[in-house]
Amino acid sequence: MSDCSRIYVDACCHIPNAHLKNRIGYGKSACGVLIIDNKNNEHEFSKYLGDKTVPEAEFEGLIFALDKASEVLQRNQNIEVWMDSDLVVKWMNKEYRLKKQHIKPLYDQACALSHRFTNIKCYYHSRDSEFAKRADRIAETEYQKHHK
Questions:
Q1: What is the mean pLDDT of residues 36-45?
Q2: For 71-130, how does the pLDDT look when each residue is reduced to its tens digit (9 = 90+)?
Q3: Is residue 1 over pLDDT 50?
Q4: How far is CA 54 from the centre of its chain?
Q5: How many domains would you assign to the chain?
Q6: What are phi and psi of 138, to 5 degrees?
Q7: What are phi and psi of 46, to 5 degrees?
Q8: Which of 54, 68, 88, 129 has the lowest CB atom count within 10 Å?
Q9: In angstroms, rounded to a whole number, what is the distance separating the alpha carbons of residues 21 and 24?
Q10: Does the pLDDT at position 18 exceed 70?
């Protein structure tokens, strides 16, 4: 049994005509969270986020995940956060400097929530990983509740 719990978080952001140049940068969004505690118990959460850019949706998902984790996990443990947003992971691990002022309040909120735990490290995983797919399904299910 590990003393580390894992959080898998994904945000879906449905942007109309995302493949076109000069498209609208906002889309309807939702997030999905899978938390696996240090005893391998699983907890699933989701939240509809509304109109967001992709980075906003990813950060809102992370904030929601950390808040939910503080409800179901002990605070005196190590946490691994796994996301398919390489950019958010690098911002959170301070590998990249955050230059986008509209994202800074979300970053600050995620950092404040991360202090609830002994140690937190963010990791990137591909969208093809088993847990990424599960978090994505949770997010998509939440999205579909609001857009049938």
A1: 95
A2: 999 888 899 999 999 999 999 999 999 988 989 999 999 999 999 998 999 999 998 999
A3: no
A4: 11
A5: 1
A6: -65, -45
A7: -150, 160
A8: 129
A9: 9
A10: no
Phi and psi at 30, nearest 5°, equal -150, 160
CATH code where residue 27 lies: 3.30.420.10
∠51-96-117 over CA atoms, to 5°? 75
CB 6 within 8 A of CB 129: no
CB atoms within 10 A of CB 123: 13
Q: Is the dihedral of CA 38, 114, 35, 97 positive or negative?
A: negative
Averaged pLDDT score across all residues of the chain: 91
Largest CA distance in the chain: 50
Note down the domain range covering 110: 4-146
Give the pair of three-digit tokens for residue 5: 């719990």
